[in-house]
UniProtKB/TrEMBL annotation:
Its main location: cytoplasm. Keywords: Cytoplasm, GTP-binding, Hydrolase, Metal-binding, Nucleotide-binding, Ribosome biogenesis, RNA-binding, rRNA-binding, Zinc. Belongs to the TRAFAC class YlqF/YawG GTPase family. RsgA subfamily. Pfam families: RsgA_GTPase. Monomer. Associates with 30S ribosomal subunit, binds 16S rRNA. CDD domains: YjeQ_EngC. GTP binds at S147, K148, P149, D150, G200, S201, S202, G203, A204, G205, K206, S207, T208. HAMAP family: GTPase_RsgA. Its EC number is 3.6.1.-. This is Small ribosomal subunit biogenesis GTPase RsgA. Residues 108-256 form the EngC GTPase domain. InterPro entries: G_CP_dom, P-loop_NTPase, Ribosome_biogen_GTPase_RsgA, RsgA_GTPase_dom.
Length: 353
């Protein structure tokens, strides 16, 4: 049955497929994942579902299981079952502890990651860089959104500072989160069929901006947490918000609580890593060694001291994190040493990082 209405509805929640499945099966989007199962959205309503047995097989790469953002084929029933995961156009992931280092999928099929930071005292270019490093390689496009421009006299200067620092072409917008006219510029990233997520530290203005983007619709949206024990207006949890501009905002606890733990990959700094390979000595500490390519680049202004420091910080955190993971895994194994000692990456680990 060719059901144009169904296709239309799915388009609104970001589906780009062409053909609906037969046999009474349907397509829906994963909007939340719990221990007890999945929450799916079909463009109209939210319903629960269980993964089919083959997703639970031991040894299956966890990245192959349904994840938030996935479009899945569902078999009706009580409960409905997720049969297949449609191919993903983008995958946001991070390294995670498990039996070995592996990628944990955070969200899929996200077109834009809006990285939100206040221009007030919270302004922190290094943190923005870290968020971008998380987005690197996902296929999603990062967009830097600077909120609270009304809280500083320094907007132009801070934007210039960021521009100099971030990869060329990264969009940067200063937007008062309470101003619908200003926020309208983000419609470019929230067009019909686009999916975006909003990330940023607590208080950056995510809820404020979300409500502004939702406009008059925001009170009418479903899935609002019905009771709030604290009795005050807090962020209502709505996993998938369909915006008036036609795009949708995926608002998952997984993204909201996204902590930067040093697990990010450092692709953003690939140029620095490449640079360091030109040092005369293979074990160059990039201090006062002769023939150090990093020192030379710093001297020439090719590499800014800020960026170099941030790179070193991220690299150290990553090493620290790896050491912690390693000892945790060793404890889990009952004290046996790791099969792959820290610092000696096998091909699997390399993929993971
Ligand atoms: N002056 C000004 N205040 C803003 C702006 N955007 C947000 N705020 C204020 O900043 C505070 C925090 O905003 P929220 O939207 O709750 O921040 P959040 O990122 O959702 O925070 P969490 O829910 O903790 O993750 C609120 O008091 C907002 O009114 C802005 O552009 N200008
Ligand atoms: Zn060097």
């Amino acid at each position: 049955m060719i059901d144009t209405q169904t296709i239309e509805r799915l388009r609104h929640i970001g589906w780009r497929g062409q053909v609906l499945p037969g046999d009474g099966r349907r397509i829906a989007r994963v909007v939340a994942q719990h221990r007890a199962g999945y929450e799916l959205h079909d463009g109209e309503q939210v319903f629960g579902a269980q993964p089919a047995g083959h997703f639970l097989k031991r040894g299956l790469d966890p990245a192959e299981r349904p994840a938030v953002g996935d479009f899945v084929e569902v078999e009706p029933g009580k409960p409905p079952h997720i049969l297949t995961v449609q191919s993903r156009r983008t995958v946001l992931s991070r390294a995670a502890a498990g039996e070995r280092y592996e990628r944990q999928v955070i969200a899929t099929n996200i077109d834009y990651v809006l990285v939100l930071t206040g221009l007030d005292g919270d302004f922190n270019p290094a943190r923005i860089e870290r968020y971008l490093s998380l987005v690197e390689g996902s296929g999603a496009q990062p967009v830097v959104v600077l909120s609270k421009p009304d809280r500083t006299d320094d907007v132009e200067h801070r934007i210039a500072e960021l521009k100099a620092r971030l990869p060329e072409g990264t969009p940067i917008h200063a937007i008062n989160g309470k101003d619908p006219v200003g926020a309208a510029i983000l419609a470019a990233y929230l067009k019909p069929g686009d999916s975006a997520v909003l990330v940023g530290s607590s208080g950056a203005g995510k809820s404020t901006l979300t409500n502004t983007l939702l406009g008059s619709q925001h009170m009418a949206t479903g899935d609002v947490r019905s009771h709030d024990s604290r009795g005050r207006h807090t962020t209502t949890y709505r996993a998938l918000l369909q915006l008036p501009s036609g795009g949708c905002l995926i608002d998952t606890p997984g993204m909201r609580e996204l902590k930067l733990t040093g697990e990010e990959n450092l692709d953003l700094f690939a140029d620095i890593e490449a640079l360091a390979e030109n040092c005369r000595f293979a074990d160059c500490g990039h201090g006062s060694e002769p023939g150090c390519a990093v020192q030379e680049a710093l001297h020439d202004g090719e590499l800014t001291p800020d960026r170099w420091r941030n790179y070193l910080k991220l690299r150290d955190e990553r090493e620290e994190q790896a050491t912690m993971l390693e000892s945790r895994l060793r404890r889990q194994r009952g004290g046996r040493p790791a099969t792959k000692p820290h610092g000696q990456r096998g091909s699997r680990e390399k993929e993971g990082w």
